[in-house]
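Q: How do we represent a protein-ligand complex in a form that can be generated token by token?
A: Start from the inputs.
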Amino acid sequence: MHVFVLTGAGISAESGLGTFRDTDGVWAKFDPMKLATPEAFARDPQHVHEFYNHRRCGLLAAVPNPAHQALARLERQLVAEAGGVFLCTQNIDDLHERAGSRHVHHMHGELLKSLCTRCGARAPCTHDLSILDTCASCGSLNCLRPDVVWFGEMPYGMEEIEAALEASELFVSIGTSGAVYPAAGYVELARSLGIETFEVNLAPSENAHAFDRALYGPATEAVPAFVTELLEAR
Ligand code: BJW
Ligand code: ZN
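Then emit the structure tokens for the protein with zinc ion bound:
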């Protein structure tokens, strides 16, 4: 069986990483237009660096939770049976990898990487970034940014995502509000391809109507329950 899993901030909420659009979310405290656009970075790069430096520190202190671990278990089991999981995450954290998932597609980039705006090099980065940093690949000064996808930028690997979706038998959306495109459109794409759709979330998302089935509850409980049921039902 081939399963396409789309995850969002809700899966990492119980690891202590904030979601974006909940009442206590990141965008309730900070203006995304001043922090998560290429124009904001061009205007005030140090301000944007400080926002991501703070979140990088939070990520380094966080640990994966039972929901991340359950998806790693699903992947191991399906791979052993010649199937697999395409784990497409909107999250910029590395908690899926640390829980043991092998193939993770970060469509909105990775907080623990830097991106050089001059040469395009992407490099591991666990330290604070600043406008004074130099790119290790091309030697340019004042050119590194967090390797994250901001509003108005093209998410990573769109063709690979769509090919994986087309090859799957089940589409599962976990912990995402369905507010940000193109990810929010994948459930409709799956439906148009005749693929069964399943939502796991704390509460119904903006496109809850498009799912065939749903399970609502905190990810640490709902995702392990979903994985157990899926593996037992086959
Ligand atoms: C729990 C839980 C628990 C809580 N257990 N669950 C008008 C219409 C349509 C589209 C657009 C439009 N205007 C502009 C656009 C395009 C734009 C967009 O979609 N904007 C919308 C806001 C309208 N999209 C883009 O710009 C994207 N690029 C693009 O479209 O390129 C095409 C293109 C480019 C250029 C030219 C032409 C075409 C890029 C989007 C980039 C998003 N970037 C961010 C920031 C990344 C870096 C960072 O982290 O700072 O990505 S924004 C933010 O939102 C982040 C997330 O990945 C993304 C999605 O959020 P997510 O994960 O869904 O979180 P929440 O908070 O929204 O939801 C959490 C959910 O969890 C909730 O449902 C809770 O209930 C649940 N939950 N606790 C389980 N314990
Ligand atoms: Zn460079």
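The domain at 18-61+109-148 is CATH 3.30.1600.10 (SIR2/SIRT2 'Small Domain'). Residues 45-61 form the longest helix (17 residues).
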